[in-house]
Structure formats: C-alpha cells, structure tokens
Amino acid sequence: MIIVVSSSPREARALALLIGNRPEPACICGSVGQFKAQLRKTLPTLVVTRASLVDGYSDDLLALLAKAELLPGTRVIVLAGADCTPRQEARQLSLGADCVLRDPLRPDVLLEYIAKFLRPTQAAPSRQPPTEQIILAGAIIQPEQQQLRRARRAVHLAPREIELARLLAESPNKIVTYHFLYGELFNRTFSGDTANLRVLLGKLVSSYRKLALNLRAHIQVTPKSGYCYLSAPAGRTIKSRSA
C-alpha cells in the first residue's frame, strides 16, 4: 500500500493518479490525523508526504512510523518547498526519510524513486566459505574430502593423518612436542612411549609416497622432544624471514 499525504486535495489527487499506474494500491490522507487513523488499518510500504501539512509536518508522520516500528522498512519520500534548506533536508533524512524532493516537483523523478524503493530486493548470492586446505611438503591436503592431492593425483587420508599434518603445518620449522601431539591426536597424556605416533607418521609418509613425495625428508625427529616439520627438506638451507 502507498499512502499519499498532502493537505492540498488537488495535489493529492494528482499524485494518486500519477502513482495509480503501478500495481500497488494507493490511498490519500489530507492530514497527520488522517494518516494516523489510516496507519491503524494498513501497513504502508511507501509514504509520499508533503513536508508541511495542515495539522503538522512530515516530522510527525516519521515519528508515527518510528513508534509503530515501521522504519526503515517503510520507505518515505518527503516533498519539500523550493526554499527547503540543506539543514532541513538533512533533518528529514535523519528522522527516517529516504529522500527529499524539492519543488518544482518532477513527476518522472518521483516515479523513478517509487520504482526504486518498491523494486523487489534480490537476495545476495550466498558465498560458500573457502574450502580449507593444508599445504605440507609439496602436496595439498583437503580435510573435507579427506584427500591428499598432488596435481591430478589423490589418495585417501584417515582423519588422524589429516590432524597430524595440520599440527605440523601450523608450526613450520618449530618443534611440536610429543606432549602436545598426544593430547591433540589421542586425547591422552604422553607417557614416554612414541609407538602410536610413529605408526601414525609412518601411515602419513606412506600416503605421500604414493604420490612420489618424500615426507620423511621434511620431518626432523628430536629425541624426547617431538617432531619438527622443515619447510625445506632436510639437507637444504632454510632461509630465515629476516634474510
């Protein structure tokens, strides 16, 4: 529903006739009081109102819409006199108006604003979150697909293989302690026995070998401490970031 509010019956009829070509129905109110009564019966999608009315101002209409919690959902176009100052225009916008059109009113501009405000909004296309990837030793691990990929070749990885790869990749060139690895991978405290971890690393190394990659060359074992993933294979110089 479009509501036209003007204390000039001639202008109100002209505006209603102009808007009448649209599919949305339009009704006329000649005052703030009539608008208030109409608001009890219908929920407008758009209001076209004169800034000055016989019993108040567009400020009063905007206050009624705000009180009814219809702003900013209801669009409001305020028609102001030619002497409307920038400060007065800014006030209307601050109160909730969507635009202020000054006299002399151009019907084509008014219709364009109405068409714009009543145009169905298109939902923005949903953006899928980027697929997580782990880069480790020349290959890409895709956790969601549980795959280890190199070019067009891929092999399946078990969840714990993926988690071990993640923990190593997150701390390149730093020792990841056995205590930390056992807590994250097996949910238990490290007791000194690295058998389970060695078996898991062996599986991951084997998976890399299927893609003709030598992961073991990137893993440095520090006795009684943990594993260190070398971003460059053992035997090659790893440049420091300050270099």
Order of helices and strands: EHEHEEEHEHEHEEEEHEHHEE
Query: How would you name the oligomeric state of the polypeptide chains in this document?
Result: single chain
CATH architecture of the largest domain: 3-Layer(aba) Sandwich
Strand order of the largest sheet: 2-1-3-6-7
Explain what you see.
By secondary structure, the protein is an alpha/beta fold. It folds into 2 domains: 117 residues, Rossmann fold, CATH 3.40.50.2300; 96 residues, Arc Repressor Mutant, subunit A (Orthogonal Bundle), CATH 1.10.10. Helices cover 35% and strands 22% of the residues. The protein has 8 helices and 14 strands. A 5-stranded parallel sheet has the order 2-1-3-6-7, with helices on both faces. A 4-stranded antiparallel sheet has the order 8-9-10-11, with helices on one face. A 3-stranded antiparallel sheet has the order 12-14-13. A hairpin with a 2-residue loop joins strand 4 and strand 5. Helix 2 packs parallel to helix 3 and helix 6 crosses helix 8. The two termini are 69 Å apart. 22% of the residues are buried. The C terminus is likely disordered.
